[in-house]
Every structure is written in structure tokens, then in C-alpha cells.
Amino acid sequence: MSEVKNVVIVGSGPAGYTAAIYAARAQLSPVLYEGSVTAGGALMNTTEVENFPGFTDGVMGPDLMDSMRKQAERFGTTLITDDILEMDLKSSVKVLKDGSGNVVKSKSVILAMGSAYKEIGLKNEKRLSGRGVSWCATCDGFFFRDQEIAVVGGGDSAIEEATFLTRFASKVVLIHRRDSLRASKIMAERAFANPKIEFLWNHEVIDVLGEEKVSSLALRNTTTGVESKRDFTGLFVAIGHLPRNELVLDQVSVDSEGYVKVKDNTTHTNVTGVFACGDLVDHRYRQAITAAGSGCQAALDAERFLSHE
Ligand code: NAP
């Protein structure tokens, strides 16, 4: 690993793998760090993806990511199943250190670290995580067979989680702080038509209760302020995401919400030779297809940058 690489890609969602496919086809011999435990990104935790163009009958999220990974590998990407723990981006040769202690040097870096699930911030949320509190229905839904569980949120993620959980749960109560959903119409209508989903409007969860595992939720009506308690054995949190910027926060410019800033309609960050794409940059669209598109842009930007070096 002592030679200086052309491009190192950090992150393995649709953005990272697409950047790798393009960079590899441009003969740049990219190295992609896909993470030690989270390879494939957020789509690994979804079920059927119905809106990725080219799949008439939909495709399972993990299958889509596996195909992208194999495609990146086929053209010569070096895939490394490890995390990058440190980056020094300021010099013309960027220096990255991975979880095994290897140091990688590169002329350019593509940041594609994606985003992480947001927590509500309840007193007992962390303590009961894995004991009834979850951020991933596809990972944990199976454990809630014939039980009554709650989902918090009003966006597409919450609807997707709630709908998926009806496969197992006897009832899913979707708790939303307002009286209308943010989710897309098609997904909302599907949920409204699902007899196992109940909507609890204008309510917020103020704590999750239970000793060894979740037994109930403390709730507050957001219009009247009235507090109540209701029994649930599970709480699925689906209230959005936060950009995974911790490796670069003090090195590249980020906006007020922590998303990495890129120049104009490119993937150039404020640091020469450093490009950013996918959910790390985008809080507006956040789709697999837009992430893949921006990964393509990042590889093209890196290729042009390297050719003018
Ligand atoms: P989102 O659209 O930002 O929705 C977050 C939801 O959580 C909102 O309803 C918000 O309430 C609520 N919320 C935020 N903070 C909260 C808090 N502290 N307490 C209680 N509720 C809180 O996030 P998302 O659902 O993860 O979706 C993100 C993007 O991914 C969207 O563009 C979405 O279309 C896309 N996505 C697409 C699919 C699909 O097409 N299959 C699936 C999943 C996600 P308010 O509405 O009051 O702000």
C-alpha cells in the first residue's frame, strides 16, 4: 500500500460503488473502502426497491448492492472490507489510515460515507436499543411476531418500516408529531389501506419504558400537551438521517446540517482533489438513483482532476 493511488473511495452505497465502476472503467485502479460491518450502505436494510430504473418488477435492496459491488470488482476495483479511521486531506497526496493500521496514499479521494439513522434523543433510547428499540425493520422485525409495535416518523422511511413490520406484528401504530404525512402519496395510500396499521396523529414519544426490554411508551399530544402511556413491545425509529461526516468535519466545508458542501453542480469539495457524493452531500433527494448519479459525477470529476495534474 506504499504506492500513491489515483483514487480512494470511502463508502459503499450506490454512490461509492458507482464511483468505483466509472473510475475503474477509466483505468484509474480505484481502491474502495466498503466498511468493516456496513458494506452496501442503507439499501442493505431495505426490502424491495421499486423505483430503481431498469428493474421492471423491482429488485431487493441487498441484491442491487451486490450487483453494483460485483460490477465495480469486474472492472478492477480493489474492494477492502475495512473502515477508514483517519484522513489527512490537506496535502496534494492524501493520507488515509484504515482499521487494520494500513496507511493508504492517494492523489484524490471520493467521500461517499452516506448517512446514519437519527435518534429521537429519549432518556432510555440507547439503553433499550436492541431490547425493543430498533432503527431497522428488515433486521429486527422478525422478533416482533404477533406483537403490538410502534413506528415513529412521517416520511417514506417510516411508512416503509411500518408496512414491512405488518408481516410480523399483530398491529403497527405509526406515531407522527403532525396530522399529515411527509411521505410520498403512493406509499402513504398503501399504508392507509393496510388494516394492520393504525395512525396516531399529533403525538410525540417522550420516553421509552421498560427494565430488560421495551414495555411501553410515554407519549405527549403535540396539540393539547396531554401526556399518556401506551403498551408496546417494540419501538422503530424512522425520523431521518444524519450525514456521516465525522472523518472530515474539520477538513472540508459542511453546511449548517453537517452535509458536505460541493461547488456549483459538481462534486468538488473546497479541498483540491477531494470529491463528495451521495447522502453525505444530499439532503434533498436521497434516492438510490440520485446517489448513484452523483457517484458517477464524482468519478468523472476525479478523472478530469487527475488528467490535469
Ligand atoms: P424524512 O423525509 O426527512 O422524514 C422524517 C420524518 O420524521 C418526518 O415526518 C419528520 O416529521 C419526522 N421527524 C423528524 N425528527 C423527528 C423527531 N425528533 N421526532 C419525531 N418525528 C421526527 O426522512 P425519511 O423518511 O428517512 O426519508 C428521507 C428521504 O429518503 C426522502 O427523500 C424519502 O423520499 C427517501 N426515501 C424513499 C424511499 C422509497 O422511495 N422507497 C424509502 C425511504 C426513504 P415532520 O414531517 O413533522 O418534519
TrEMBL record:
Q: Which residues form the FAD/NAD(P)-binding domain?
A: 6-295
Q: Which UniProt keywords apply?
A: Disulfide bond, FAD, Flavoprotein, Oxidoreductase, Redox-active center
Signal peptide positions are: none
GO biological process terms, semicolon-separated: removal of superoxide radicals
InterPro entries in UniProt: FAD/NAD-bd_sf, FAD/NAD-binding_dom, Ferredoxin-NADP_redctase_2, Pyr_nucl-diS_OxRdtase_2_AS, Thioredox_Rdtase
Q: For this protein, what is any one GO molecular function term? A: thioredoxin-disulfide reductase (NADPH) activity
Q: Answer yes or no on keyword Oxidoreductase.
A: yes
Can the keyword Flavoprotein be found in this entry's annotation? yes
Annotated Gene Ontology cellular component terms: cytoplasm
Gene3D superfamilies xref list: FAD/NAD(P)-binding domain
Q: Which PROSITE patterns match?
A: PYRIDINE_REDOX_2 (PS00573)
The record's section on SUPFAM superfamilies has: FAD/NAD(P)-binding domain
Please give one Pfam family short name. Pyr_redox_2
Q: Which NCBIfam families match?
A: TRX_reduct (TIGR01292)
Report what the protein is called: Unannotated protein
Organism field: freshwater metagenome
